[in-house]
């Protein structure tokens, strides 16, 4: 399938959505948040797992499936690793290189799992008493290919 095929483009839009939504959970989090336990894995470990999911998705797309269970880096480095991993995955999807895994499997495995964990980080922000504002994501300016830390400003936030 070409880089412009509708399924591949939807997958790229989904990665951009992940970058936007996960980026929001990471932005302005106090440094102490990385280690917040809250009865579950700390956010730094969850974010490392999300980075691993993006690496895994790319490895499947390339046809060399490989899983890593990374030890979390210091928070700012882990945030940078997350965005770098999403970018590498998106760049491959944007290319004309063939996918060695179906779009459906790439979505249902690593990408859907990463979206779930993004919600987990958002919930932990509230539990750690450093909540972020809610947002109407339907009106958010999300574009395929915009997968870095720099995202459009929220259009409609609420408390």
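^ structure tokens above, recovered residues below v
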């Amino acid at each position: 399938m070409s880089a412009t095929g509708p399924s591949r483009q939807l997958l790229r839009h989904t990665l951009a959505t992940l970058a936007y939504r996960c980026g929001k959970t990471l932005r302005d989090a106090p440094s102490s948040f990385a280690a917040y336990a809250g009865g579950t894995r700390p956010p730094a470990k969850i974010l490392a797992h999300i980075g691993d999911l993006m690496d895994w998705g790319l490895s499947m797309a390339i046809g060399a499936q490989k899983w890593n269970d990374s030890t979390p880096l210091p928070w700012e480095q882990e945030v940078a690793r997350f965005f770098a991993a999403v970018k590498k995955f998106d760049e491959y999807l944007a290319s004309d290189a063939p996918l060695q895994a179906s779009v459906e499997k790439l979505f249902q495995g690593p990408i859907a799992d990463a979206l779930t964990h993004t919600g987990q980080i958002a919930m932990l922000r509230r539990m750690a008493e450093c909540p972020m504002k809610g947002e109407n994501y339907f009106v958010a300016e999300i574009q395929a290919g915009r997968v870095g830390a720099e995202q459009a400003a929220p259009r409609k936030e609420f408390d």
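Helices lie at 6-26, 43-62, 75-94, 103-127.
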